[in-house]
Design goal:
seven-stranded mixed sheet, 25% strand, disordered N terminus
Length: 308
């Protein structure tokens, strides 16, 4: 099954992307480059075509990688009344892609996503691993168990979740995309779901690398202010100040939420959206799943702390 919104060139592409290994960007700023203004498709559950509304609260997650347990941990967290009392309403869930590969529970993951789409309004954009799976592109990082269980899923109706799934979505002057914002044609590693934030621009075997300044220029050309992405499994915040682009250190602080029968420990870093920002969230997988919440005035990076 191929995603109709994803265009691939002939032949297979093998990319090496180490499993669950963060990519650390020490210096991510360089000169701008020309980009073009793409269109703005979206995929929204519950048949809605426009969810823009003042005071909207959004949960954003990325890179689940067939880890159904991590997705369940996120779901349990946002259902706690104390979560909504602390952060705000949960009006929409935004999936930034990479539901598939690497983990060993792809069927349970897709079933969970479909259940969430019935419970919440959900927007989904395509990740590079989703694109690779759907188009038969070889990507490293999955063990034998993961590969077997993904192959067992090949003819499943669950894959209909990817039908017409776009590369991006936007609302409240924020672009939501798995990798990057640049419109660079249809070559596989230049697609938006394969692009990577980096300190230097150019074509690499992991995908096209772009800089923060290139991203801000692309956003400005489209009349957008912020970008939220995933893909690289490590959170980062870049802000465009009057003096230039800076990488803001994220100061995580502990937060304990009361719930029935006990407590839930989170680590939270809040960023005001008073300046143009690139907000890359960590992966929602493993023992410390990460996600984010925004009311479009403040952006909160959130980690679910492991149980004692």
């Amino acid at each position: 099954m191929k995603n109709p919104s994803a265009t691939a060139t002939g032949g297979s592409v093998y990319t090496s992307d180490p499993p669950y290994k963060p990519v650390r960007d020490q210096h991510i700023f360089s000169k701008n480059s020309d980009v073009q203004n793409p269109g703005h498709p979206w995929f929204i559950s519950k048949g809605s075509t426009n969810i823009s509304a003042d005071g909207m609260g959004a949960i954003i997650f990325s890179d689940v990688h067939a880890d159904a347990a991590a997705l369940e941990a996120l779901t349990s967290c946002i259902r706690i009344p104390a979560f909504r009392a602390t952060f705000g309403p949960v009006d929409v869930l935004v999936n930034l892609g990479d539901l598939l590969h690497r983990g060993s529970r792809p069927q349970e993951t897709l079933e969970k996503v479909q259940a969430l789409a019935r419970e919440y309004r959900m927007i989904s954009v395509l990740g590079n691993h989703d694109h690779a799976y759907l188009n038969g592109i070889l990507v490293s990082g999955s063990d034998a168990a993961s590969t077997y269980r993904h192959e067992q899923l090949r003819n499943s109706p669950l894959l209909s979740i990817f039908d017409a799934m776009p590369m991006e979505w936007q609302d409240h002057n924020m672009l939501f995309v798995h990798g990057g914002p640049l419109e660079l044609g249809t070559q596989v590693l230049r697609l938006k779901c394969w692009q990577r934030l980096s300190h230097e621009a150019g074509d690499f075997f992991t995908g096209y690398h772009y800089t923060a300044s290139m991203a801000f220029e692309a956003l400005e050309e489209r009349g957008l202010i912020h970008m939220c992405c995933g893909h690289q499994h490590e959170n980062i915040c870049c802000r465009k100040t009057p003096g230039g682009i800076v990488q803001q250190e994220l100061g995580f602080v502990p937060l304990v939420l009361e719930k029935d029968g006990g407590t839930l420990r989170l680590d939270v870093a809040r960023v005001p959206l008073d300046l143009p920002s690139i907000l890359r969230i960590g992966g929602c997988f493993g023992p410390v799943p990460e996600f984010a919440y925004t009311d479009f005035s403040t952006f909160s990076f959130i980690r679910i702390a492991p149980r004692d």
